[in-house]
Design goal:
Elements (H helix, E strand, L loop, with lengths): L3 E4 L19 E4 L6 E3 L4 E5 L2 E4 L4 E6 L2 H7 L1 E3 L4 E3 L8 E6 L5 E3 L4 E9 L28
Antiparallel strand pairs: 1-5, 2-11, 3-10, 4-9, 6-8, 6-11, 7-9
């Protein structure tokens, strides 16, 4: 599969989207901020990437947090995973959320997220009137207890 990328002017000088190792599932995405962006504790910020993608029909891009940011800085992506649809052609923005107690500074070129490409099955939703029964039934939201 090939995904076409277009880099916007504010991406100039930043690395292209790429896997950091041959076994990596995700492609790293960099912050294309013009100046440092501070995300206060308990707040979110939309971080520009200067990146647009053309994802083939039948696929999606899933924007996911980076584990190092989560562990070291308690920073994640608010709507994780974020979905990039195959028909979206605008700039990809990353909604970082600071779960920590200290301000988090996003600097130009920081690796702030990763994108994983996933195949989507062709699905048709059919009004069935009734659903086939299961042992679980309608139990949800912790119905099996803790642990």
């Amino acid at each position: 599969m090939k995904v076409s990328a277009r880099y916007l002017p504010h991406h100039e000088g930043l690395p292209p989207v790429r896997r950091m190792t041959p076994g990596s599932s995700g492609f790293d995405i960099h912050a294309a901020v013009g100046r440092d962006l501070v995300v206060p504790p308990g707040k979110s910020a939309l971080v520009p990437t200067g990146l647009e993608l053309s994802i083939p029909e039948g696929f999606e891009g899933q924007v996911r947090p980076r584990s190092g940011l989560a562990l070291k800085d308690r920073v994640g992506i608010l709507n994780s995973p974020g979905t990039i649809d195959s028909d979206y052609r605008g700039e990809i923005g990353i909604i970082l959320f600071n779960f920590g107690d200290a301000p988090f500074v996003v600097r130009r070129g920081d690796r702030i997220a990763q994108i994983v490409f996933c195949s989507l099955p062709e699905v048709e939703i059919v009004d069935a009137g009734e659903l086939d029964p299961t042992a679980r039934g309608d139990g949800g939201f912790g119905h099996t207890g803790r642990g």
